[in-house]
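A reminder from the course coordinator: this example appears on the midterm review sheet, so study it carefully.

Given structure:
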């Protein structure tokens, strides 16, 4: 009897520990999205000191997203090599310092360099989150866990407009970056003392060399499901980064908002994105618990999320209140989509490859965001309106979903595939 009670107590503690670590990572992702929102929300104040054109603004986003993409892939490999705990700590130290560095900028070139350094640091955030989920969360709860973590993007984005607005009105735009960097350094302390790897993870790390011989980097890249996921993320994040990084500027330029109005209203779509992150993951887990296959549980919610994304096409044609409502629908569905697509690497691949695969998928997304951001700046500077841009991005998630549906194969652990250990290329 005592042994049984002790076992139940230990199991309860393990469950509590799992979700504590999920909360810890969610806080990091929230800080990440707050940090990347500092520039877009503060842009009207920054422009009084450092004048910027639409094209220059797009280059600042490009400077963030290209190194972000590279380090998304490299950061995933780094985490697979040195482990989640040490790797995530180094990643957060880097990006917090880079965020604070923005506050010292005196010209466009300095902002460009600081933005580049920030992207390099933040690129490892989601690969680390995916590894934590793979280490600690059983498969039936992974989409819920990733949905909660992905909701951290909304927490950071929701807090950014009002909090940054307060700092802008009281202390100036430079203090925004200094405070953001300090918050990140505080999280590093929390992570250092709060996180540990699971025993399964330790075993996988010790055996990583053997696993890598079976799945080299080029083996992984040659697999059809990996390439399809990269393409799908490329398409969907082309839209997402446009929404994320251009929404405040759209409200400033096309709707005539000032700093106070952006502070009051710009957080609303991001709040919707947080609800979408959680509900998308919850729905997929619920389907799985009711006996649906892993493949159906993931693809059904991905398809449902993609179905409503074209509503953004109507944004320029409706009053601003309705436009914010349409943004809410798009942000809700996008983050439902995002949490699930970043769960797929943990669903399919062994732990020692999860960081690498998640990194490659995120790499594709960031490259898509970088390219379309420059395209957006080019089109706006050539006289095209936001209506053209919303028309284009409204189709991207549907294209991504059909790629997954028809070319990615069945969502199931790789060891169950007939072609294990390799999947023939497309």
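Designed residues:
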């Amino acid at each position: 009897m005592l042994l049984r009670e002790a076992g139940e107590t230990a199991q309860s503690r393990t469950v509590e520990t799992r979700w504590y670590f999920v909360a810890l990572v969610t806080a990091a992702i929230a800080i990440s999205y707050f940090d990347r929102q500092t520039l877009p929300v503060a842009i009207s104040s920054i422009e009084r000191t450092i004048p910027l054109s639409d094209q220059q603004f797009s280059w600042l986003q490009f400077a963030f997203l290209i190194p972000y993409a590279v380090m998304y892939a490299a950061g995933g490999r780094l985490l697979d090599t040195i482990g989640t705990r040490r790797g995530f700590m180094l990643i957060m130290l880097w990006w917090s310092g880079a965020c604070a560095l923005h506050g010292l900028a005196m010209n466009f070139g300095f902002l460009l360099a600081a933005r580049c350094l920030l992207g390099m640091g933040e690129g490892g955030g989601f690969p680390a989150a995916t590894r934590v989920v793979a280490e600690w969360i059983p498969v039936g709860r992974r989409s819920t866990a990733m949905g909660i973590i992905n909701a951290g993007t909304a927490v950071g984005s929701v807090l950014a407009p009002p909090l940054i607005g307060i700092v802008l009105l009281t202390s100036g735009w430079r203090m925004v970056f200094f405070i953001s960097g300090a918050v990140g350094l505080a999280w590093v302390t929390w992570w250092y003392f709060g996180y540990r790897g699971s025993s399964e993870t330790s075993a996988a790390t010790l055996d990583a060399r053997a696993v890598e011989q079976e799945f080299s980097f080029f083996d992984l890249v040659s697999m059809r499901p990996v390439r399809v996921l990269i393409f799908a993320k490329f398409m969907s994040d082309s839209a997402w980064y446009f929404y994320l990084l251009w929404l405040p500027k759209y409200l400033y330029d096309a709707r005539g908002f000032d700093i106070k109005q952006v502070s009051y209203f710009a957080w609303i779509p991001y709040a919707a994105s947080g609800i979408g992150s959680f509900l998308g993951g919850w729905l997929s887990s619920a389907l799985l618990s009711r006996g649906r296959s892993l493949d159906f549980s993931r693809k059904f919610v991905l398809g449902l999320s993609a179905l409503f994304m074209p509503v953004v096409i109507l944004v320029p044609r409706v009053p601003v209140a309705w436009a914010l409502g349409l943004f809410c629908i798009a942000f809700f569905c996008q983050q439902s989509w995002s949490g699930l697509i970043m769960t797929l690497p943990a669903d399919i691949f062994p732990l020692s490859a999860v960081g690498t695969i998640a990194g490659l998928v995120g790499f594709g997304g960031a490259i898509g965001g970088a390219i379309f951001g420059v395209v957006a700046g080019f089109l706006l500077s050539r006289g095209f309106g936001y209506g053209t841009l919303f028309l284009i991005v409204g189709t991207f998630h549907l294209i991504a979903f059909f790629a997954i549906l028809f070319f990615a194969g069945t969502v199931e652990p790789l060891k169950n595939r007939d072609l294990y250990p390799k999947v023939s290329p497309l």
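The first helix runs from residue 2 to 49. Residues 199-213, 416-426 have pLDDT under 50 and may be disordered.
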